[in-house]
């Protein structure tokens, strides 16, 4: 399958895997999304007493020992454990691919790296001295730990890299992974994101900057994208991975194809380190680039999985950009973050998985907690049950701190 | 601390850090090959033994030992008269 560098191979998605608060396998995950109820609960991984925001969407019933031996699990931060597990599931979902190790690639996204380990070790030097710092601190906290783990466990000997663009990391990992397949650098790429940043220091900082919902009395009602009463995002954790495969290779082996990753756009706001550009230009141009890359016209799009964080600023800016690109309320939009929270560097990858499941099922899941649509957001949001979506191309958005924007366009396999 | 105490401390540290069974930690066991320890494990093991025994051994010296008994020899050399 190795062709000239300038050739552009089509990219098939042939495997999916998730670890989220809504489920650790595709069936449970989709069924929970369809139920349309938020998974935000009081934090259980540590005692959150006294924290400004004491709730999050944590992954439950995940045992790294299902994927790793005891020593391997101990030497990996939860971010990498979740990522490796989701990637392993995605690869199993893709079936027997027969791609040689040197033609395999991996691209992982994370916003923070090994947050739990970082925060657990902050006291190491002052408390125990320079000589008593764990040798595992660096390999467990480095942003590329998941990419390394996936490469080691799945014998990936081709290109491997890590994208670190905050909340756009997951979508960009998928997009950059697709580019590796397109340009012929690899025939199969495991692409996705993982994040476990439900940790005291990180949560406190997000809370202090006013980014998190403070609805502590009713956590399950806190993540409410595009609702008039939204007051911030809800922290989530988890991982999502896709198997991106050379289209001809996937067809030749009779693989089940979820869809084609047809377009990828990315821009930067060049505006503010945390706030989106108020005119939404970065987001708008990003979507336009993704459409152009996919050679899909704006009026062909049948559904958008929004970034939809539930912060006052993001949702109105994104809604404005969507209306400018596609026209107001032209197709159903939903926000997966309403159910699973904001997975930061994993969000875009998990939402890419969601978009492909939406394509397969022919229905979009509802946006949880959307009771009164913000009049500033002129969109047709899916609420109260699933909505049937016609067959056609779909778009997924991710926008990150730092002003990083990414949009992915998926096309049905039959098209 | 006598040789038996040192050995017990070593068995303890190896089972905890390397995830091996107590039976595997024999005096002749080669750390890298028999106990499957890599460079990170050896660094952690050195730190754990220093803590358990209360000695300070130069890092470079730890890198030269290959077996369990060589590790104990090295630690014994650094015990103060009061400790041995």
UniProtKB/TrEMBL annotation, chain A:
The lineage of its organism: Bacteria, Bacillati, Actinomycetota, Actinomycetes, Kitasatosporales. The keyword Protease does not apply. Residues 8-412 form the Ketosynthase family 3 (KS3) domain. Keywords: Acyltransferase, Fatty acid biosynthesis, Fatty acid metabolism, Lipid biosynthesis, Lipid metabolism, Transferase. Its EC number is 2.3.1.179. Pathway: Lipid metabolism; fatty acid biosynthesis. PANTHER family: 3-OXOACYL-[ACYL-CARRIER-PROTEIN] SYNTHASE, MITOCHONDRIAL, POLYKETIDE SYNTHASE-RELATED. Pfam families: ketoacyl-synt, Ketoacyl-synt_C. The keyword Isomerase does not apply. GO terms for biological process: fatty acid elongation. This is 3-oxoacyl-[acyl-carrier-protein] synthase 2. SUPFAM superfamilies: Thiolase-like (SSF53901). GO terms for molecular function: 3-oxoacyl-[acyl-carrier-protein] synthase activity.
TrEMBL record, chain B:
The modification O-(pantetheine 4'-phosphoryl)serine is found at residue 39. Pathway: Lipid metabolism; fatty acid biosynthesis. It comes from Streptomyces cacaoi. Signal peptide: none annotated. NCBIfam families: PRK00982.1-2. This is Acyl carrier protein. 4'-phosphopantetheine is transferred from CoA to a specific serine of apo-ACP by AcpS. This modification is essential for activity because fatty acids are bound in thioester linkage to the sulfhydryl of the prosthetic group. Residues 1-79 form the Carrier domain. One of its GO terms (cellular component) is membrane. GO terms for molecular function: acyl binding; acyl carrier activity. Keywords: Cytoplasm, Fatty acid biosynthesis, Fatty acid metabolism, Lipid biosynthesis, Lipid metabolism, Phosphopantetheine, Phosphoprotein. It is found in: Cytoplasm. InterPro entries: ACP (IPR003231), ACP-like_sf (IPR036736), PP-bd_ACP (IPR009081), Ppantetheine_attach_site (IPR006162). Carrier of the growing fatty acid chain in fatty acid biosynthesis. HAMAP family: Acyl_carrier (MF_01217). Belongs to the acyl carrier protein (ACP) family. GO terms for biological process: lipid A biosynthetic process.
């Amino acid at each position: 399958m190795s062709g000239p560098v300038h050739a552009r191979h089509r990219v098939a998605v042939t495997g999916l895997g998730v670890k989220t608060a809504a489920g650790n396998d595709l069936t449970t995950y989709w069924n929970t999304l369809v139920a349309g109820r938020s998974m935000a609960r009081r934090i259980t991984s540590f005692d959150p007493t006294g924290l400004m925001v004491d709730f999050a969407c944590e992954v439950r019933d995940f045992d790294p020992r299902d994927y790793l031996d005891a020593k391997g699990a101990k030497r990996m931060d939860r971010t990498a454990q979740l990522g490796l597990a989701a990637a392993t599931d995605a690869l199993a979902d893709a079936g027997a691919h027969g791609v040689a190790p040197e033609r395999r690639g991996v691209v992982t996204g994370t916003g923070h790296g090994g947050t739990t380990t970082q925060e657990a070790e902050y006291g190491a030097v002052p408390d125990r001295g320079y000589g008593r710092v764990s040798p595992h601190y660096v390999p467990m906290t480095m942003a590329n730990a998941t990419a390394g783990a996936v490469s080691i466990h799945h014998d990936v000997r081709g290109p491997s890299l890590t994208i670190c663009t905050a909340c756009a990391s997951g979508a960009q990992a998928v997009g950059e992974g697709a580019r590796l397949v397109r340009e012929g650098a690899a025939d199969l790429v495991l692409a996705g994101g993982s994040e476990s940043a439900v940790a005291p220091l990180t949560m406190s900082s997000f809370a202090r900057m006013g980014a998190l919902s403070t609805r502590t009395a009713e956590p399950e009602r806190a993540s409410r994208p595009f609702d008039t009463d939204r007051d911030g995002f809800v922290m989530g954790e988890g991982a999502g991975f896709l198997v991106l495969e050379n289209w001809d290779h996937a067809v030749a082996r009779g693989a089940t194809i979820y869809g084609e990753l047809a377009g990828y756009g990315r821009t930067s706001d060049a505006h503010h380190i945390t706030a989106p550009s108020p005119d939404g230009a970065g987001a708008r141009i990003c979507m336009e680039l993704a459409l152009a890359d996919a050679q899909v016209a704006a009026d062909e799009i049948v559904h958008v999985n929004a970034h939809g964080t539930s912060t006052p600023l993001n949702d109105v800016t994104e809604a404005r950009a969507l209306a400018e690109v596609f026209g107001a309320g032209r197709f159903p939009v939903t926000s997966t973050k309403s159910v699973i929270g904001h997975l930061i560097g994993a969000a875009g990858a998990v939402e890419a998985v969601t978009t492909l499941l939406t394509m397969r099922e022919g229905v979009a899941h509802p946006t949880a907690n959307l009771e009164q649509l913000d009049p500033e957001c002129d969109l047709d949001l899916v609420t109260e049950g699933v909505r049937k979506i016609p067959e056609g191309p779909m778009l997924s958005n991710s926008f990150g701190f730092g002003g990083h924007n990414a949009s992915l366009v998926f096309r049905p396999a039959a098209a | 601390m006598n040789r038996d105490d040192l050995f017990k401390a070593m068995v303890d540290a190896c089972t905890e850090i390397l995830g091996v069974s107590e039976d595997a930690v024999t005096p002749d066991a080669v750390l890298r090959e028999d106990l499957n320890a890599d460079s990170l494990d050896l660094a952690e093991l050195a730190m754990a033994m220093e803590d358990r025994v209360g000695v300070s051994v130069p890092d470079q010296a730890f890198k030269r030992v290959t077996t369990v008994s060589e590790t104990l020899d090295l630690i014994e050399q650094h015990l103060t008269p009061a400790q041995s």
